[in-house]
Amino acid sequence: MSAAPARFHGVIVPLITPFKEDFSIDVDATRWLVEYLVENRVHGVFPNSTTGEFPHLSRDEAVLLTKVVLEEAGGRVWVLPGISANYTEDCVSLGRVFKDLGVHGVILTPPYFFKVSGERLRLHFSRVLEKVDLPLIAYNIPAATGINIPVDLYVELAREYSNLAGAKVTYESFTYIRQLIQRVKEVRKDFAVLTGLDDMLLPVLMMGGDGGVMALANAYPQLHRAVYDAYVSGDLGKALEAWRRLLSLVKVYDYSTSYPTAVKTLLKLLKTPVKPYVRPPLTPEKPGVEESIKRIVEELGIPPLS
């Protein structure tokens, strides 16, 4: 356990984007979801996220979504919208718009069309860090971008830019995360290392990380908070018990075709106002998948949310 939490820590939610049947953003469902998450003590929300289908949103929609989230959150949790794009200057300009709206920080992946590396990858992050006066979380998700951000680059950028606030790592490698935590915290103790994988929450905390940005926390953040709270209070037995329940919930992904559809199906089964609509080429899960997820909900005894 770290002596003092990093600037960003705990349970942060990569917010799904609720849609209506005509694929327009469902503002009312978005407001409901943000209020539900705040009431259940998440530390932050990440609109315009990967789970939120950010490549399917226009710039105007990303701004609208973030405005709605900021308004509903009312300063009670961090709002950390995504600014990822293939053109670095688009990331900069969106980051500046979000700064003017009053967000607490931004989250940025590598570009995901041209698979840049070395100095070009460094250029992408350093230009945004220099031009956007906000804390930034650099998001490593190689399965989606085709780029695995080197630990060396995180260390170099953390040393050079005080506004590089942390890393979100959606990558199934204990060795990578261990090296990142050990090396980057030698340079910056306030640097947050956050997992993007629900099932890695407790291991990352035990390795000296700071929490996670995890999709299933859209639906049942009580479990993620139980793991985090027990661990930081020193009750490892209780943390382990909550984590094992969380591992059962993670089976939702095993049946689903994508993160957004997994979470939206779960929210549908929990009887929330969030409908299972996703934008094509994604499609809602089929009835057989829904039945499998329903069994998980019943086994865990998760009650309807509304």
TrEMBL record:
Q: Which InterPro entries match?
A: Aldolase_TIM, DapA-like
Chain sites annotated for binding pyruvate:
T51, V213
- Alphabetical keyword list: Lyase
The answer to whether UniProt assigns keyword RNA-binding to this entry is: no
Residue numbers annotated as active site: Y139, K168
Family matches, as Pfam families: DHDPS
What protein name applies here? Dihydrodipicolinate synthase family protein
Its ancestry begins with: Archaea, Thermoproteota, Thermoprotei, Desulfurococcales, Desulfurococcaceae
